[in-house]
Design goal:
alpha+beta; two-stranded antiparallel ribbon; 2 helices
């Protein structure tokens, strides 16, 4: 897309893609990775971007909260400066519910005119394993906007 490139490991598929966002799935379908980057208007800091993501989760998953024994940290991802954190939430559909986990990174360029987002989603209890599955994909991320 316009904001990010990635090398798909064997068996990974593109679930959806547009000019700013792509959603990728592993061969076993045990989770997904969302990568996004685009312009922010008005300009926003990484903290403001994090607030938007948290609001999205709380709106769509009312029980969303930071997972136990996790911390929010200032970090970088593929050269982008931002914030990482882990949310736990419950997905409900068709009378069923599944506990989910999202490992998140959101950042902004120095002027706040570009955002960066990485969201790794899987079921609760599977995140450490899934992060290893997604590692080759995540290591290949290259942001195209600066």
């Amino acid at each position: 897309n316009d904001g990010v490139t990635v090398t798909l490991p064997a068996g990974w598929t593109v679930v959806s893609s547009n000019s700013e966002t792509m959603v990728l799935s592993d061969p076993d379908g045990s989770g997904s990775v969302l990568l996004a980057s685009g312009t922010s208007s008005p300009a926003q800091t990484a903290l403001e971007n994090k607030s938007q993501i948290d609001d999205y989760f709380k709106t769509n998953y009312p029980d969303a909260q930071s997972c136990p024994n996790t911390t929010t940290a200032n970090t970088t991802f593929s050269g982008a400066t931002g914030i990482s954190w882990v949310l736990c939430f419950t997905v409900t559909a068709g009378g069923h519910s599944v506990p989910g986990t999202a490992s998140l990174f959101v950042g902004a360029n120095s002027s706040g005119s570009v955002y960066y987002l990485v969201m790794v989603v899987t079921r609760q209890g599977n995140l450490p394993t899934y992060m290893n599955v997604a590692k080759p994909l995540l290591q290949s991320v290259q942001w195209k906007l600066g």
